[in-house]
Hints:
globular, Ribonucleotide Reductase Protein R1, domain 1, CATH 2.40.50.140, 9 helices, Rossmann fold, alpha/beta
Amino acid sequence: MTATRIGLVVAAWRRHYAVRFGDGETLSCVLKGRSTTLACGDRVVVRRVAGGGAIESVEPRRSLVYRSDAFREKLVAANVDQIAAVVAPDLPVDLELLHRWGIAAAIERCRYLIVLNKSDLPGFDVLRTRAAPFGALGAVLAEISATRDIEPLVPEFRGRRSVLIGQSGMGKSTVLNGLVPGAQARVGEVSTALDSGRHTTTEAALYELEGPDDGWIVDSPGMKTFGLAHADPHRIDEAFVDIAPYVGRCRFRDCRHDREPGCAVREAEAEGAIASHRIALMHTLRAEAAARGA
């Protein structure tokens, strides 16, 4: 019987996956069965077969970042310990997306890094001011101009397993190419492994960082929406670090933090300790989760 090996999913096309092994080999693999979906960052058990490999099982995940609504879900990355969002001053920044990514990071117990890119452009001071509240909520803020000097950002990724996300046009690709020299060449290697004459990667791709720290970055496509309908409502409440300390202080144990008397969350809002838009977002995410579960 052919021996199995454990490898890392580095790219995907439908049910075809590029899996990289510890010796550097990248193999085109097909996932057996239809009940499982994989993401870049998954560690999988592979058996070599004619023409490539067969993925037989998935190792337990440390984390899973994905977006969902009431009807469908899309996996973004597995086993990450950092969600890194890229924003810039020359395009409108969707602040709700930034909040949603922060909630996703908290739910998966990941570090949340916001990369403030294009620091050399006019309007950067405004971007810095708009980002400051996220720092108060626990996000790490890093200011750079990726086209000029990427070095200040390198320590934020060294030794970490990150997923890089952002709206289109924010400079995410420039950040990636600065952090991973030769990234485009690695795209070519993955395309060859997946036989890109027939298949086109990829909705996400994983790039290993140079050095002994075992770090990597999953690059995801530009995002306009990020639903969290899959999230457990209790985890949603806990993920709002500004709201969670007040949840247990309400008069009623099942308080929905809406119009109930004696609601500690609403009292904190009235005192300015919690921003109204954060409570509104919490209710929106709860409603999304309820619609999915209905």
